[in-house]
Fold Carbonic anhydrase.
Amino acid sequence: MDCLRTKESAEKIMNLHPMWQEPLEVPGGDRQSPLDIVARKSVFDSQLKPLVTDYDPETCQQIWNNGYSFIVEYDDTTDKSTLKGGPLKDQYRLCQFHFHWGETNDWGSEHTVDRRLFPSELHLVHWNSEKYSLFEEAVMEDNGLAVIGVFLKVGKRHEGLQKLVDALPAIRHKGSSVEFNRFDPACLLPSNTDDYWTYPGSLTTPPLTESVNWIVMKQPIEVSHDQLAVFRSLLFTSAEEEVQKSMVNNFRVQQPLRGRTVRSSSHRPLLLHSLSAGGAVC
Ligand SMILES: [Zn+2]
């Protein structure tokens, strides 16, 4: 069931990406993302603390199709929705979350664990509001961003996700947006947020800056096939374009580890069979 991405298929997929059609000035750095996380090579670090999220659903503002994914945006002018703890020294503010997904349930996540692919991956993007005053400033700097990655696996319908899924038909085309209020992103976190991997990496979309503390959850959340099918009904293209393209395979190809250490908050492996199916009640 694990489908390895060959160079050939990666190139084919890149050709389908509106954001990857131009030759990119990829920073020649040593800490690009995403990665294949090799669980047995990750290093347990007893200093890693539990994550502390404090999200105010009232800061949720809108949902929009940027031509690559759908983005749920939060008001980040104050410290109302924050992340701290985990591997982080400072407090970070939530600015948006989005997903990456495949054309089928066989692939779609950006990170993989021991080459295991998931159909989708959620990214909750936060910036360091203790050191910087704007996202645009933080995005260029070391320890500027903290992104929580959550794998989605196919199973039962996720009630929290459904409110998002219901909004998607209104933003099918690139560039469209609708108001979206009172959404608590904590409902998209797995029930166990104490078990995670963390490593220094980059954004996986331009500008690809190496400013990200990655925190990848070991417990996936469960969503239904039908919910993922609505993700795939979105379009990379605007309403004016003659040929419409389905928004699928919007992930970056994996990047070399280059000597980095992936730290682990526990000795536990990927938590695929935990008793709790994940997804707190919204
Ligand atoms: Zn992302």
